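dumping the sequnces here before i forget
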Amino acid sequence: MTSLLEVKNIEVAYGKIVAVKDVSLTVNEGEIVTLIGSNGAGKSTTLRTISGLLKPKSGEITFKGDRIDGTPGHEIVGLGICHAPEGRRIFQRMSVRENLELGAFLRNDKAGVDSDMDRVLDLFPRLKERIEQRAGTMSGGEQQMLAVSRALMGSPKLLLLDEPSMGLAPVLVEMIFDTISKIRQQGTTILLIEQNAMAALEVADRAYVLESGKVKLSGKAADLRKNDEITKAYLGH
Amino acid sequence: MAKVAELQKFKGTRGQIRRQRVERIGAIIISLVLALWMLVNIIEAPSQFAQVAILGLRNGLLYAFIALGYTLVYGIIELINFAHGDLFMLSAVFSSFFITVWFNQDASNPAGWLTFILCLFAVMVFGAVINVLIERLAYRRLRHAPRLAPLITAVGMSFLLNFIGLKWNGSTPRQWPTVIPNFDIYVAGVRINMVTIMLFLVGIPLLLGLNYIVTKTKNGKAMRATAQDRDAAALMGINVNKTIAFTFAIGGAMAGAAGLFYQQAVGTTNYNLGFQLGLIAFTSAVLGGIGNLWGAVVGAMLIGFIQGLNDGLPIAFGQQWSQSVVFTILIIILVFKPAGLLGKVTTEKV
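..and the predicted 3d for all of it:
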């Protein structure tokens, strides 16, 4: 396996407040990697730094061997990293279709965009029913489906998912995780943040545990699931 | 069970319901008063009514072009660009110099018409470039500053442009010859000036073009996405800075066109034009619902129309009350319908 994304010792701060002190991680092609950790551990900040919304103070990020730290966010999308951000952040006043079209904003291959549109609507049939509806009028679960679909419309090599199960009913959580596996089977590498550590460790190949802006533990998801410290701290039993 | 029925009929809290009722009653009373006033005047002087109504709508079109710049910029970065009215004033002065001094045209003939068309392109580019420069130099650095900082900067920019206008135009109003057909025609006894017809002929396609850009093109989509959520737009691959600059360019081009239209319709320029018309245009944008493009057009036409009727009808407050009428409308709207005619009530972004 070759590494697709390499994050080396990044430090990220909001003004004077350091959110990420020292995070290094690797994502290999075809993997699902998950970042787990409590609130404020620096998970979302790490993801926002990878997708270019934030610039690291120090450290390196390479994607397919090229440095991408400091590249503006809108150019990173073009390289093949798409991000479904925390809190969904869909365009509320636009239709589902317009949201999906915006996901493919940088693409010029109309045939490819059309087939990707069919693909995401197959993944989430609910969106097909609501294709002309205003996105803001949909339920939370549907909005989450839209956020994931919109990121997929960019035809990503690497998909960044930030808390895709947040605030959803258990049935929907299961459905979202099934879909995440399906997306990987279709050839997209995934870096996933989850509060729901149990579910995340079940679907992922490898995991990193973040605490106070540092990587505390890392390893195969299956091993971490058995780790006492993890089960106590994050799995709640 | 009674509770369930109550819940199904729930249409808002008691305060919201009362507010809706007040809004509705207020709207009915105001419409009735306006309708009665117009009716009395129509009976009194029908052809005069038609004449001032057309003139009012023409002014409304002018206001609309300025109001669009306010509403576009507010829609995308939530800034009231106070310098916008002064950009309009500079555009009017630019048009005057372009036609009369640089191209030496002073009459309505084919050469004059050609100059008018050339000037339309030139002044739109002029407005766009100046507006983009203002955004680049003054507002972009303050994008993450507290709201008040860019607002005060906008006031400063307004003064700067105002003084450039003072230098360029002089401190007194200047008369200019017009180059588009300027004679009256009579339609069923109603006098209409050709300038008015020309402005509608040029202005309406421009508005439709703008609507096309915003709703159909890729740049327009980027604008709407950026207006709703800047970070999310960046995650779609939209260059947010470029999109904001593009918005300023469009707003500036519209102010440029308005400058030329005003200069040709009225024939005078003054350095403080931007303040007067800018305020009226801003009022129009608020009236229609700031951030809403068609709202700005509807609001501007309505203000132009009412102002026209007030200034020209036999039974009205008359011209000396013109500004008071406009701003009374603003106050009434803010009291009864703070979101504007076509605007929607939105909560503050978190």
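Chain A has ten helices and ten strands.
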